[in-house]
Automatic annotation (TrEMBL):
Pfam families: AAA_28. InterPro entries: NadR/Ttd14_AAA_dom, P-loop_NTPase. This is NadR/Ttd14 AAA domain-containing protein. Residues 7-175 form the NadR/Ttd14 AAA domain.
Amino acid sequence: MSPPTTIYVIGPSSTGKTTLCTALAQKIGLPEGAFVSEVARTVMREKGYSRHTIDQVQMQQDIMEAYFAKENELDARNHPIRLFDRSAIDPIVYAILTSKNDEEARERKKFLVETPTFTKALAKYRSNNCIIIMLKTVEEWLVDDGVRSLEKQEDCLKIFRALLKELNISYHELGEESKFLQERVILTLGWARF
């Protein structure tokens, strides 16, 4: 049995991740259990976090662990195609972004990247069966819903790029040049070789 194809859609807040994932799930005809969405919001709600606690490394670790739990669930279900709205990379980016200084950023990154569960996930992220799509900020799409962190969008994007490069993870970017949802769906499906 060949390994599943997994698509992760990542990037700063309010870049259209959930919109793209929903459209992809519909286009591919994914069963409900093969599409993972809103993990961070669920963790925040269940554990009493908010966008005002985004700087807590414990919050980011809890979100990361929730992604690993979802990964394990999907591994057990053997879906041939899986779709994730965000990834375990995102909490590391936010831990770095909200650090008080460079030293704290390095410590937080090291702490989260060196967890045994992230090491296991890293092998998946580097595999040929993994497609990572990073969405760049589209200024007019930024909407404050009271949950998302809309500050430092460009800094967040730079951290994503630097972290992906450091971890040797391949990815594709979508932004202003492809605002139409159908275009984004077609590009993503092409990268996934569907």
